[in-house]
Design a protein that fits this description.
By secondary structure, this protein is of the alpha/beta class. Helices cover 41% and strands 15% of the residues. The protein contains 14 helices and ten strands. The structure holds pyridoxal-5'-phosphate. The site of pyridoxal-5'-phosphate has 11 residues, from α3.
Length: 348
């Protein structure tokens, strides 16, 4: 009954088989392996972007930080929401890799902090360059798809944000740690969710959706390729035995494994959400992808934890008034089974 995060499950056998297969003979290092050429071709095809620059790194933090550093000067600021992973969960790596750029927080719609609205983004950007040489200069806008609250930007919402960034001449970055969970939920193409909507760079996550540790950084304008390469090397994220990253990504993109895994994860979450709803647990947002936030009485959490359920409490400690409701985060990955979810719901 493991709902703590979608990086906690196993790796699909196809990925391990691909690693075994890649583990014969010799291959050039540092991304010059044949598999990487195939990964690049495959990603360009999937994204309908024949010129795109494609690079692999092993963590989402490296992907985001190095991508943003490539799009941002040290004297600029990056616009993101208060719950963006780059703000809350990367230990200032974006600030570090950009050489000191700031993050400027864009409020969400009333009662919600997960998605930035075009109006709030416009107002925040407009305010940010009013101090001439003394203040931070405007830099990239970064959105997260799926958001840290498990919600999804609709294509029109991405387009409206991209319109604001374009009005100010700024680049748009997408943290896609859960890219495919959003993609299959929207039922759109990767191109529609990115460059066709105005996204300039995307971190295309693999790890949360079944890989052992691979994320692809994609720039739709290949002019960024070389700068990203030298930043990745300087940042210590250019893998020497690179073929083992390539082999994982290739397996991910073969026979629709990436989409199948995301569909399974989303279906698991929908199933869990339906069960929680039946028990009357209020949600922060309805289930859209593979993550939900639901409130339960503290005594219920205590009982579930004691019985072996694993998940994170979001807005309160485990100790305290047993009747008080505490919101918890539940994340489902591709490998969870209905049996395990049923086991959890029976306990509940
Ligand atoms: C998990 C996650 C990442 C990547 O984090 P790492 O731990 O560095 O791999 C990036 N963005 C979001 C929104 C995430 O949930």
């Amino acid at each position: 009954m493991f709902f703590a995060s979608d990086n906690s499950g196993p790796v699909p056998k196809q990925v391990l088989q691909a690693l075994t297969q890649a583990n014969t003979g010799y291959a050039m290092g540092y991304g010059a392996d044949d598999e990487m050429a195939e990964v690049t071709a495959r990603i360009r095809e999937i994204f309908e972007a024949p010129e795109a620059a494609v690079h692999l790194v092993a963590t989402g933090t490296a992907a985001n930080s190095l991508a943003l550093a490539t799009l941002c000067q040290p004297f600029e600021t990056i616009f993101c929401t208060p719950v963006a992973h780059i703000h809350e969960d990367e230990c200032n790596a974006p600030e570090f890799y950009t050489g000191g750029a700031k993050l400027t927080l864009v409020p969400g719609a009333a009662g919600s902090d997960d998605k930035m609205t075009p109006a709030a983004l416009h107002a925040t950007i407009a305010r940010e360059e009013s101090r001439g040489v003394h203040g931070p200069q405007r830099g990239p806008v970064s959105i997260t798809q799926v958001t840290g609250r498990g919600t999804i930007y609709a294509l029109d919402e991405i387009k409206a944000i991209a319109q604001v960034t374009r009005d100010f001449g700024l680049p748009l970055h997408m943290d896609g740690a859960r890219f495919t969970n959003a993609l299959v939920a929207l039922g759109c193409t990767p191109a529609e969710m990115t460059w066709k909507a105005g996204v300039d760079a995307v971190c295309f996550g693999g790890t949360k959706n079944g890989l052992m540790g691979v994320e692809a950084v994609i720039f739709f304008d290949p002019k960024h390729a070389w700068e990203f390469e030298v930043r990745r090397k300087r940042g210590g994220h250019l893998f020497s035995k690179h073929r083992y990253l390539s082999a994982q990504m290739l397996a991910y993109l073969t026979d629709d494994l990436w989409r199948d895994n995301a569909r399974k994860a989303n279906a698991n979450c929908a199933y869990l959400a339906a069960g929680l709803e039946q028990k009357g647990a209020p949600f922060l947002h309805e289930a859209q992808a593979n993550m939900i936030f639901a409130a339960l009485p503290r005594a219920t959490h205590q009982r579930l934890f004691e019985a072996g359920a694993i998940y994170h409490l979001w807005d309160g400690p485990l100790e305290g008034d047993p009747e008080q409701e505490v919101t918890a985060r539940f994340v489902c990955d591709w490998a969870l089974s209905k049996d395990l979810i049923d086991q959890f719901l029976d306990l509940l």
